[in-house]
Here is the input.
Amino acid sequence: MKIALVHDYLNEAGGAERVLRVLSEMYPKAPIYVAFAKQGTAKKMLDERGKRIVESSWGWLLKIGRMYSYLRCCLPWVWKSVDLTAYDLVITSCSGYIARGFRVKPGARVVAYCHTPPRWLYGYDTPTGANRQWWGKAFMWVVGPFVRYFDYQSAQRVNTWIANSREVAKRIEKFYRQKAEVVYPPIEMPEVRRETVAKRGDYYLVVARMVGGKGIREAIAGARKAGVVLKIVGETVGAGIRKEELESRNVEYLGRVEDKELAKLYAGARGLVALSRDEDFGMTVVEAMAMGTPVLAFNGGGYKETVVPGKTGILIEGTDAKTVAEGIRRMEQIKWEREKIGQWAKKFNRARFEKEIRGVVGA
Here is the structure.
């Protein structure tokens, strides 16, 4: 059986790219088709593993500046240029760039692992927040109906849907009228020495891309009000949060760090702060818990599926500075059983992911 993998595009590395990496290791002979691939952490991660990456015929244009964002109205033609008629099984890892609508042969099976239907297309927070601006709304008024039609029609060509959370499964049913199996993403953290885990620091941690929808500004304000140190890990993306916004007496911005260093930061933190208001799943939350670290998260989206209040963390109802600060103070009052937190996170391990994916895919 000839298998191909498809992914939206390769730019910055996030949770979706980690899932893609695991899929590429599960199906090592499968080439990876993308709309475009910029030189960056995501492409490097796959290049280092010798993966064959194939760009669409639009790739050269989409890589120029932020053309990939401006040309979303051209997505039907981008994906129609991708010829997968040589393959019997196509597994697509899709989200905001609608990695569907490619050409397949009659009888070929298409399985979609969906991180979320396009957030920008259905009114959810986006990295830049452009869809909340007047010009973003004008753009959506013009191209939205056309792209939504393509999104819906291409969704009907998928044989099997897999969602990364119950939250996303609800969105798939709402926007595509399709049922989806839920397979949580694989969580992998490097081993760290036991004495490192036992030695907790005096800081709270945020791990996210530096964009508006991730609650970075709210976490900074809440930590300042609570009087605690906040360390922030993550790449700056496009027109996201500016570096000067991260410069504060209680904030240490670390940028992108290697996985081993990230594991140590998780292990040393008093808690992880995760304030995205409608998170699709939230892999960083489970990564923190895998290191025995409790989580302060907004009570919404995928966080409701991973955080057990009082046992693995706290869910709060708002993201204003006062509510976040109160949440941090509550975190300080609880004697967390860190080994039990780590045990809970093991249910999201890679072996479980691979078994469930193969069970659904049948290959």
About this structure: The radius of gyration is 20 Å. The chain is about 40% helix and 15% strand.
